[in-house]
Specification:
mainly alpha; single chain; 7 helices
Length: 140
């Protein structure tokens, strides 16, 4: 079984080791940072989109209303972070795939075949990671 970091992203692949040996360590660190940024962004967005018990609207809608009324951006909105531009396409793909149940590799493969989007292994793993974050937030 392949080792994974805290977000379910595989670590230490043969390709990673080759890039490191070929001077690609900086590039790997750059994208690792962006992947971690995407995971934080996803979790913040999923928390904002959740509808609290005894409420009819999402946290995002409530906080946006407070912001409009007070002119002060609530901390939870301010700290939501930015979507890393380099991985924005992964976020879009996730939203094309999202379903009422946890995503499976079969669903991802079928989506890839239907849309013509040829995913690399790490991209499929990143989509699965985002989905795991979604379900973790939903079950808190």
């Amino acid at each position: 079984m392949q080792a994974r970091d805290g977000h379910g992203i595989p670590e230490g692949s043969a390709a990673d080791r080759r890039r490191y040996r070929q001077g690609g360590h900086e590039a790997h660190a750059f994208f690792r940072e962006r992947i971690e940024q995407l995971a934080r962004y996803a979790e913040a967005q999923f928390r904002l989109d959740r509808i609290p018990k005894d409420s009819k609207q999402s946290t995002r809608v409530s906080l946006t209303s407070v912001w409009k009324q007070t002119g002060r951006k609530p901390q939870q909105l301010a700290e939501a972070g930015d979507l890393p531009e380099e991985l924005a396409y992964i976020w879009r793909w996730y939203y094309e795939l999202v379903s009422p149940n946890p995503l499976t590799y079969t669903e991802i493969r079928n989506w890839s075949e239907v849309t013509g989007n040829q995913l690399r292994g790490w991209e499929a793993e990143l989509i699965k990671s985002i989905d795991r974050i979604f379900w973790k937030v939903q079950h808190e």
